[in-house]
Amino acid sequence: MASADSPPDPSPRGHVLLAPDRFAGSLTAAEVAGHLAAGLRRARPGVALVELPVADGGDGTVEAAVAAGWRRVEVEVCGPTGRPVNARLALNGRTAVVELAEASGLRRLPDGRPRPLVASSVGTGQLLGHAVRLGARRIVLGLGGGACTDGGAGLVQGLGGRLLDALGKDLPPGGAALRSLHALDLRGLPDMSGIQVVIAGESAGPLLGRGGAAAVDGPRRGASRDEVRLLDAGLRRWADLAEAASRRAARDLPGAGASGGVGFAALAFLGATIEPGAPLMLDLLGIAERARGAHLVVTGEGSLDSRSLRGTTPIGVARAAARAGAPVVAVAGRRGLTGERLRRARIQAVYALDDIEPDIERRRRRAGALLEQLTVAIADEWLPPDRPIP
Q1: Which of 277, 295, 325 is the last residue of a domain?
Q2: Which of 16, 33, 59, 89 is the most exposed place for a label (fewest CB within 10 A)?
Q3: Both 258 and 299 in a single domain?
Q4: Tally of domains in the chain
């Protein structure tokens, strides 16, 4: 297993490490790694391959931890609209990885239909509670890919808190209902003392206002302009009562607006801290150890461009591999880095799907097959058959 609790299993010396992130809109990180492995096994059947899909706290984070050897735990929780879903968390010793997208994500919406006013993070709270009951003392919380704009009110409900209206009745789920919030009953919350919660991700904006959760994430979840105003009003009411109850002023902290405001609840009620998602997850997955002794490291993501240089997971993989002395190549749907910028990223070459399929829709539909096609060039240039791998 790979984590801060125990060292990762050693990789075979002279191996090829496949450590890609997801291709958003087409393939998960595990699928990308699988297609790369399938192509390379055909091209170079004798080469040892290690598949280690990576993530930065967004969609696919639990899947990446499980692929690295963490224990997979599945539990039935409430999805974003209240329907039960089977969601996973990853456990390694006393460290757990919990992912918002697993329980409360866009991919959990029935028929994919946005429900911006009623979608809730309650299932994520239930996952957190399950991690606590399993004995986790450090919980890494990935907040990407959420479907809700409820300020994390559902997360608090999922942990056992109650949100009450003026008649003492439980509020229905979702951000819109928060306008009717009158009181909080937190007696059902678990004892979180001594449990460290770390949000894996970049610091987002505040909870409220023009740069807040409703304004930024509401439209992405399908909210109209009027619905954004309604959601912001509910979040303001929620912030007033939540801060009074938790005795933490969290609404303006960096990260409070993350994922529809779920970051706010984690900061206010769980005392969470925020760490950049890519380096945090790469450390947990043991990327440096896995790259040691590698003949080649293959990473990648959907679009490798100037945004990547601000610290996406593939750049973190490349830098860790370079420190381990392994050459790095990348695969991408679209290539936006060349020359000196590519060298600064510690990547020797990029193999892009748009080099062999210019049509974007066909590229998305056939991404897996195209990746396997690219492995022929990778094998020819980096794994010559007449030169044995040490």
Answers
A1: 277
A2: 59
A3: no
A4: 2
Indicate the residue type of 255.
Answer: G
CA distance 284 to 320: 13
Give the C-alpha distances (Å, rounded to integers) separating 203 from 226, 239, 258.
27, 18, 7
Q: 172-213 pLDDT, tens per residue?
A: 999 999 999 999 999 999 999 899 999 998 778 999 999 999
Q: For residue 283, what are its two tokens?
A: 């450390």
pLDDT in tens, 91-121: 999 999 999 999 999 999 998 999 999 999 9
Return left, alpha or beta for 31; rule: phi > 0 is left, psi -120 to 50 is alpha, else beta.
alpha
Q: What is the pTM of this model?
A: 0.90
- Which of 231, 250, 277 is the last residue in one of the domains? 277
The three-point CA angle 101-26-203 to 5° equals 40
CA R_g for the chain: 22
Question: Can you give the CATH number for the domain in which 256 is found?
Answer: 3.90.1510.10
